Amino acid sequence: MDQKTAIGLTGEPVPPSTTRGATVSRNSQRFCSAATSGRVSDLLTLGLGQQRGRLLVVLIGEGLATALIVAGGRVEEARLGIALLALATGLHMFSQASSWAAAIDLAPGQAGALFGVMNTLAQVAGTISPILTPAIADRYGWIAALDFAAVTAALAGFLWLFVNPERPALAA
Fold it and tell me: Residue 11: what pLDDT?
């Protein structure tokens, strides 16, 4: 699959001719969100300190992602729903830069090991979600499945209230 191929809701490639010019790949979306959030996180950290600056990025990203997932599951117009859910994905990715930066702050001498744990947990979640989401949808409907996804995004933001990158958990 080339970089100009879009991904449909089922995860299958959608030829560019059927997307009316919307050929932004998932990797492009991730890159733009991560690059933007990294810069925003750096700027906020300089002005507000590590804890508040990084927390604000996560709360903005996960809070808006939560709202857009809930809204995207409830709109009548399919294209608007797709746009809202795609934006929610980008905003969820927006919060990731703070997590990676905080890992360096929390475990300066063991950041690689902490990255490995974080990545492993993310991969487990990524493996379970395409199984769990349709199972929830089959039993309770797609709105409930998307609401569950919204709750997980909100939980990610909430748990960040307990992260303090200014207090390393492990010494260098």
Answer: 45
Please, are residues 46 and 58 in contact by the beta-carbon 8 Å criterion? no
In this structure, what DSSP letter does residue 75 have? -
Instruction: Give the Cα separation of 13 and 158 in Å (integer).
Output: 34
| Dist CA 103 CA 151 (whole Å) | 24
DSSP bridge pairs for 7 = 13
Distances from the Cα of 103 to the Cαs of 46, 85, 100, 115, in angstroms?
17, 28, 5, 7
- pLDDT (tens digit per residue) in 93-117: 888 888 888 888 888 888 889 889 9
Q: In which residue ranges of the chain is pLDDT below 50? A: 1-23
Q: Are 41 and 53 in contact (CB under 8 A)?
A: yes
DSSP string, 120-168: HHHHHHHHHHHHHHHHHHHHH-HHHHHHHHHHHHHHHHHHGGG--TTS-
